[in-house]
Design brief:
Layout lengths: L1 E4 L7 H10 L2 E5 L2 E6 L7 H7 L2 H15 L6 H8 L10
Parallel strand pairs: 1-2
Antiparallel strand pairs: 2-3
């Protein structure tokens, strides 16, 4: 991964984007990472927004901890509690 110091990043953005298509580019300020340019393939705006949303990531981490601790419900349990009819099994 290549890095560029923010204060020295004077080239046009399009040049940096072209470089990032080959290898991620980390933008640093005084040695600390402040941004990254990475190639996005098979992603849309919503997926990008969700993946970089701190609140959403917090919810995901909490849910994963709950699952790991056995505090999750099967879809059948949720349907029973909500009074939803069980799914019909497909016959082959």
């Amino acid at each position: 991964m290549k890095t560029v110091e923010l204060a020295k990043a004077t080239e046009p953005l399009s040049d940096y984007v072209r470089r990032a298509a080959k290898d991620p580019l980390l933008v640093v300020s005084r040695g600390r990472a402040v941004a990254a340019l990475v190639r996005i393939s098979q992603a849309d705006r919503e997926r990008l927004a969700v993946s970089s949303n701190a609140r959403f990531q917090s919810i995901v981490r909490k849910a994963r901890r709950q699952v790991a601790a056995g505090k999750s419900y099967s879809s059948e349990e949720v349907r029973r509690v909500l009074g939803i009819m069980p799914r019909k099994r497909r016959s082959r």
